[in-house]
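Each record in this resource describes a single protein on a pair of labelled lines. The shape at a given residue is found from the number at the same position. The record below illustrates this layout:

***
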Amino acid sequence: MEMYSTLQKSVGDEEPISVYIIEDFEPYRETIQEIVNLEEDMYCDFVFESCEDYFSVFHQIPPPKVLLMDIAIPGKMDGIEGTRRIKELNPDIRVVMLTGSSDDEKIFKSRSSGAIGYIIKDDEPEVLIKKIREAANGEVAMSSTPTRIMQKMLEQKFKPKKK
């Protein structure tokens, strides 16, 4: 398990955005962490290789404002189940899924599990940073969302209940 802490940044009177990453592919995980740590208004102190690694220290470290979660992370718990569990333990953590493709079903399930958005892994760094800021502000943070996914989510939400 990779986990470490660095000095927190301070941005005037504003509290910087704390970001954690759960991602199994080390080069990508390290790149995201470097990108986040280059920003003045955010920092990434903790990175994890799996959901299990994160939950092993969940109660020992402060919660992040935004958690970037690999949707298809290997292990006993995938990103969707990990998100569901995180939201049960701390509904204030804003989970944004990281995905290699815009798989409608996985994106729909991740939003249903409590994720505030998703980012396509090959998005430009500027998009990643923008989506982290949106999530930190409580906004839905989605990479160019296909209309059909949003339509499916709305249909599910407003589907008449059967008696």
Summary: The radius of gyration is 16 Å. The first helix runs from residue 26 to 37. The CA atoms of residues 108 and 153 lie 7 Å apart.
